[in-house]
Amino acid sequence: MGKFQVISHPLIQHKLSILRREDTSTKHFRELVNEIAMLMGYEVSRELPLEEVEIETPLKKTVQKQLTGKKLAIVPILRAGIGMVDGLLSLVPAAKVGHIGVYRDEETLKPVEYLVKLPEDIDQRQIFVVDPMIATGGSAVLAIDSLKKRGAANIKFVSLVSAPEGVKKLQEAHPDIDIYTAALDENLNKKGYIVPGLGDAGDRLFGTK
Ligand code: PRP
Ligand code: URA
């Protein structure tokens, strides 16, 4: 079974509380999503492999460490996942970015995929899938299905707020992936919203409602 980790750093918890507030503006919401994604990135990248290399400082030759292994791809689930990309790119600027478009049908809550655009060598990459919300888990499961169909094998899922039901569904469908979240909330309401949650992440991020 992959890892499931709630990243509870004080700075993340503080920023997340502001993010949840109803009166937080679109501008501030956008900034906070990126800041939290960046802070989570430290933890999510903790196990990236290192290799020893010989370098020369102005004083002498020395053996030091640098990143090695698979190159990274960041894959946001549209729309709301886009809000987390810049925060992670500030840590790993050379990462490629793929996109998977999924929306939830408002009546059935079933996910519908409408776009997949990935780096050609996605099967060779360590992938960070990002989406602020895991509610029923349907969108996350579909996005990972889609990636695996294209050969992706090394996948970590990074979310901000998750519902226990959604995490369970994702773990059952894809037990091999690691899941990171900043908060595991209480439950889902009848409309499939996470409670207490933060509302509709895409609408709050883009100001569409
Ligand atoms: C939101 C969110 C997730 C999904 C989670 O996207 O960003 O992708 O809902 O819900 P689930 O776990 O029940 O599938 P939404 O469908 O609202 O699309 P949007 O980002 O384009 O607004
Ligand atoms: N999608 C969101 O954006 N928010 C929720 O609470 C549930 C799904």
TrEMBL record:
Annotated residues for binding of uracil: 194, 199-201
GO terms under cellular component: cytoplasm
Keywords: Allosteric enzyme, Glycosyltransferase, GTP-binding, Magnesium, Nucleotide-binding, Transferase
Domain Phosphoribosyltransferase per the UniProt entry, residue ranges: 6-208
Cofactor binding note: Binds 1 Mg(2+) ion per subunit. The magnesium is bound as Mg-PRPP.
EC number(s) on file: 2.4.2.9
HAMAP family noted in UniProt: Upp_B
Similarity section: Belongs to the UPRTase family.
Described purpose of this protein according to its UniProt entry: Catalyzes the conversion of uracil and 5-phospho-alpha-D-ribose 1-diphosphate (PRPP) to UMP and diphosphate.
Protein name: Uracil phosphoribosyltransferase
Organism: Streptococcus ratti
Lineage per the UniProt record: Bacteria, Bacillati, Bacillota, Bacilli, Lactobacillales
